[in-house]
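Is it possible to get an amino acid sequence alongside its tokenized fold?
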Amino acid sequence: MRHYDIVIVGAGITGCAIARQLSRYDLAIACVEAGNDIALGSTKANGGLVHAGYDPAAGTVKASVNARGCALYGRWAKELGFGFKRTGSMVLGFSPADREHLEKLLENGRANGVEDMRIIEDDEIWEHEPRASKEATCALWCPSTGYVDPFEVAIAAAENAAANGVEFWRSAAVDAIDEHADGLVLHTSAGDLSASYLVNAAGNGCADISRMAGGERFELVWRQGNIAVLDHEARPLMPLYPIPTSVSKGVIVTGTVHGNTVITATAAIREAGDNDTYAADVEELLSGARKLVPDLDTRRLVRAFAGGRAVIRGLNDFLIERSAAQPRLFQAAGIQSPGVASAPAVAERIEGLIRQAGITLVEKPGYNPVRTAPEDFDLASPDRKRELIESDPAWGRVVCRCETVPEAEIVAAIRREPGAVSVEGVKRRCRAGMGRCQSGFCQSRVVRILARELDCDPADVLLEDKGSNIVYGPVKEVR
């Protein structure tokens, strides 16, 4: 049985950020994930906004890690090579009552350490975003807000962690945890492993991991959110927010690093595990978006999807602490919004807690914080495209027409560590299938490439997780 100094449970954006943060040190570390890939939970079902930190209540854990995480994103993006745009954002107000709420957000943001915010009016609103509603009378301008692809951040952090020695156990659902004299033994669907210390970053499974490890007992509420994605815009929109509600930031319209428009997200309490999309929720998204951007062509919808946030019942905050009940356990639990924005700072805080516990952290020789991003053929210059095609003809065989993804880019996504093992895993790494046809043209080709690279039958290639086979065999003789 393999023993590790630290095992992180959960390979979403939080777990991967922690893995990357701790990979600096001379420790044996593993990251254990129930799914067969990185970023399959809340990280995948996410709008990708890097919120500035004016919304969480002052004095909460959320508030402290949100502003710090947002500040760290510039460095993380540079080191890890993922797309990040710090565009600024506006919370639009339409009435005197809205302005009063903006004043409260401004005061709260300053208490949280968010800098350079101010309330603006009239033409200044449309100078920042010309397509913002002309009905808006005021707005909270916050220059530090930005956006990322959350799964790209998680994958980039995982690749950098793996390059620095972290081992990733995928398809390794934790069934039970036993305590022994030298640590905790995790019984998983991929085999057993032991750890001197455990970090609980299991997202919507965090309550089960805490219970099994002998930590705090709490209950999660499945606060489900539907999200809508529109086709590419000529110019990506700045993030535009409505006045927030008591449970969420409301329906937000934002651009993405790839030029789409995302409308995010509804907030409904539903049965745990419900990832269905609902017509009423999608209509709520589209109507909310049109209030903020009246000329938004919502007929250009290419995808709607849903996921659940890991909300701890009775605690509208993150749980980031060393467990009082189980000293070998560190909690990074209840990470709901603003989890994406907070991930780098959550990783910092876990490192700090580990130091406080007296665990020696010695930087390993040869640690490298830089991850070389994969080639993006669509963004390459004409000269670079010619160079790539001359080096390997597979760069000239375009598989995904909507996003201009060639075969060589898909092969690279599979061969990187930890690489894609499913059609959706390829999509998250190089966008094959994310365009307006949503895999209608390229899926069969991606299946064929996966089968070849994974040395398996096409019938064994999965769309996503276990049981999602796409091909079940030939319908006629294959010549």
